[in-house]
Amino acid sequence: MKLTADILEERLSSVLKEITGSEFPAIVRPSANPKFGDYQSNGVMAAAKKTKQNPRGLAEKAADKLDVSDICDEPEIAGPGFINFRIKPEFLSKALLETASDPERLGIEKVQSPEKVVVDYSGPNIAKEMHVGHLRSTIIGDCICRLLEFAGHNAVRQNHIGDWGTQFGMLCALLERKKESGEKVSMALSDLESFYREAKKLYDEDEKFAQTARAAIAGLHRGEQFWKQSWIDIIEESRKHYSLIYQRLNATLTREDERGESAYAGQLQEIVDHLKEKGCAEVSDGAVCVFPEGFKNKDGSPLPFIVQKSDGAFLYATTDLAALKYRIDKLGADEIVYVTDARQILHFKMLFATAKLAGIAQNQKLRHVTFGTMLGEDGKPFKTRSGDTVKLKDLLEEAVERAYSVVNQKNPGLSEDEKKSIAEAVGIGAIKYSDYSNNRTTDYIFSFDKMLSMDGNTAPYMQYACARVKSIEKKAKEKGIDTQSEIDGLDRLEVLEDAERDLAVHLLKYGLAIRGALAEYKPNFITAYLYELAQKFSAFYTNCPVLSSEGITRSSRLTLCRLTHQTLRHGLEEILRIDVPEQM
């Protein structure tokens, strides 16, 4: 069914066109303050300015012509030209019952023109453990995919893993040397990281080893099985690590979504040749460069986008162009979204400009979704006490351990398996929700104490709220109340008290939160909505007895409880991929 705001906006926009002769969006949004009604339009003022009319006068004309009697009380004019709408009980009842009859989509329609959107996110490096820097890309990218799919788009996940380059030749050469010397070689990821540091040192200091490493690099480029097998073993060991991380984070990335840098290695010269043929690239100081318009060095000289170094080597820029071309030509992308930290803004601006200049991308939308830095409580980039980068695996482990302590303290009577299951859901959920609840473009302070708190906009609070709502039906059953029959038997909802009406109106605005999150690719639109929903339910439950009421009042309130639970669960589990335990 259409969102209430959309119906009002369509009708008011039509009236504005009739009055002014031009198209003007009515811009209907939820009211910030309940005293101004449930929805408010501020589009009349822009229309008045363009048509040189008095805004309040135009608002009055529009309100007189506007027929929304099936939805609202008579519209009210406020201030310089706002139009306020208050939903009628009859419409509210009908809309809520329609929503309740559609638990999968909660009355939210799919888009009419679905697109194929390729989302590039996570991007772990092979032979290295994932660190906290991968957390935001992984979970934000995953949430974007879930939002796209719920809206009806085709989201194509792409995990652009770092599996190619000189470092792999060095690592393969060192592993071969160790095997030849009879040393037992561990392929554990932590050992591979230390092996790489050892290989880099040897490469810089030992010419004989450097020659072997260069031979390994050349062998990998030629696909020689001798070197390729070691490379495959390294990738498999790394994959075991990040696959477990994805599983724990409830991320939807799979092996089928991987397409590493190695997949494009054979196409890089073609990319450079294409740029030259198009007249986009030129040789500058021996390197092949593109100089997209509008990019300057500090001294005002054109800033180069280097695609091939003077020694013939290719760069990330070349690989990213090849990947972009593949996503358009082979995957058929209408839009490509890259989810990385904000430090890469310039790179992606130049990448997109070069792709357009070369005709690799034409009508496709290219978006760089950036995020800020996770900071320690000292306000500096999040590090271990020794100053090292925090491993993502260690961070998740600590979150679950801390959550277990809280669960054990609050519910010592639970079985060990129950405690561990709840701790896993709460600990992982706390990290994810804390990240989501912050505007993705800003830095934020990482604090276990805050994110594991049962108070405020946190995962534990939201998980508890969801479990608490669900428990009402369990209590109803214990009292002999057939909840399902009461809800199924309703042909109208009775919503009389202020607190229950406030909850009911908010339930109908979930679709707007989804739309806002999708338009901006910002999960905090969802967390903000869900937190407000939990608060409104708390006020409702305090002021409006559910199980002790009778007749249509009880049935209506049970319906509101179920809708609240369905909405909270959908937002947490289906969109944010945060598990909700049955009990907390």
Automatic annotation (TrEMBL):
Gene3D superfamilies, alphabetized: Arginyl tRNA synthetase N-terminal domain (3.30.1360.70), HUPs (3.40.50.620), Isoleucyl-tRNA Synthetase, Domain 1 (1.10.730.10)
UniProt-listed Enzyme Commission number(s): 6.1.1.19
GO terms for MF: arginine-tRNA ligase activity; ATP binding
Leader sequence segment: none
Protein's cellular compartments: Cytoplasm
Chain ranges of the Arginyl tRNA synthetase N-terminal domain: 6-87
Record domain DALR anticodon binding: where: 462-584
GO cellular component, one term: cytoplasm
SMART domains cross-referenced by the UniProt entry: Arg_tRNA_synt_N, DALR_1
Motif interval(s): 'HIGH' region: 124-134
Alphabetical UniProt keywords: Aminoacyl-tRNA synthetase, ATP-binding, Cytoplasm, Ligase, Nucleotide-binding, Protein biosynthesis
Keyword Membrane: no
Membrane is among the record's keywords: no
Catalytic reactions on record: tRNA(Arg) + L-arginine + ATP = L-arginyl-tRNA(Arg) + AMP + diphosphate
EC category: ligase
Gene Ontology BP, a term: arginyl-tRNA aminoacylation
Chief site of localization: cytoplasm
NCBIfam families according to UniProt: argS
Assembly behavior: Monomer.
Family: Belongs to the class-I aminoacyl-tRNA synthetase family.
Stated name of the protein: Arginine--tRNA ligase
Gene field: argS
